[in-house]
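User: Hey, my collaborator sent me this sequence without any context and asked if I could get a structure. I don't really work with proteins. Can you help?
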Amino acid sequence: MLVFLDIDGVLSTPSSLAAACRGGVKRDEQLRDALDERLIKHLSEALSRGASPLDTKIVISSSWRILFMEQLPRWLKEKGLSYEVIGRTPKLYTDEPGVASVARGLEISAWLWLNREKYWRPRYVVIDDESDAGFGHEGRFVKCDMNRGFDMDTELYATKLLREINGADPY
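Assistant: No problem. I've predicted the 3D structure and written it out in structure-token form, which is a compact way to encode the shape of the chain:
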């Protein structure tokens, strides 16, 4: 099972980020502290009940992958997410003003295409707070409320979806 994982709005909310970034400065340690252990616990529970722990791998699809990919696997592990991070989606957008960005769902599709030999017809789920991440991944998309993150309601929905994707009884 592959998990395409966003961070902001999923494992970090505006309130956890504000609390971690006192003084308005975003340093590495403050961003690490913005990862909400309560939300990470809900995600871990959903993954452990809906997918095989030995078979589950994480691909970072968050914008955090651009600046913090080296630190992010360690931060997630320190906060209680014990699943292996195997990579990140490619950056298919530009920072140039006035140029449209590519939907995150297309970046996920690109990762799947680029890794098709190793992960042929993979079981996967996309977890994000932005609707564009679900583009092309209908039936595999878990949308979080950016202000609540991966909370108990999301955990219940994700567990059911993961079980369906794995061919198990969703209840």
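In plain terms: Residues 59 and 133 are 13 Å apart (CA to CA). You can pass these tokens on to your collaborator as they are.
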